[in-house]
Amino acid sequence: MLSLTQFHLLGCLRQHALSNTAYVFQSPLSFHVLEATKKREDFFAQFRDVIDTAVKLKKVMKKKGLSRARCICPRCGKHIHASISSYNGHMHMACEGQCGMAMME
């Protein structure tokens, strides 16, 4: 059973127009579901783009024995600065542009 807060988060509970305390249940409309699906798909497309770039860059860095490197960002064309930790081998990368591509392993 969902709590009142969970109903609000789902967008399924709307406050009745005539009263401040009465609530009416409404099922999510199809356009809300489609909008949420589109946002999720966009997020995962960007996520895949970041992961693909990081995997390729880390592979090249490991092959060449580099701990720091720069490459061209596939999103905005600016530089991505990347480094691999000598302690645990994890990678950190961030784009200097405004595209927001960044990752920390």
Q: Low-confidence stretches at least 5 residues in length (pLDDT < 50)?
A: 1-11
Mean pLDDT: 79
Our estimate of the beta-strand percent is: 15-25%
Largest sheet: 4 strands, antiparallel
Work out the helix count. Answer: 2
Structural class: alpha+beta
Helix content: 40-55%
Radius of gyration: 22 Å
Order of strands in the sheet with the most strands?
A: 3-4-5-6
Gap between N and C termini: 37 Å
Total strands: the figure is 6
Q: Order of SSEs, N→C? A: HEEHEEEE
Shape descriptor reads elongated
Explain what you see.
The protein is built from 2 helices and 6 strands. By secondary structure, the chain is an alpha+beta fold. Strands 3-4-5-6 form a 4-stranded antiparallel sheet, with helices on one face. The chain has a two-stranded antiparallel ribbon with strand order 1-2. A hairpin with a 6-residue loop joins strand 5 (91-95) and strand 6 (102-104). The protein is elongated. Residues 1-11 have low confidence and may be disordered.
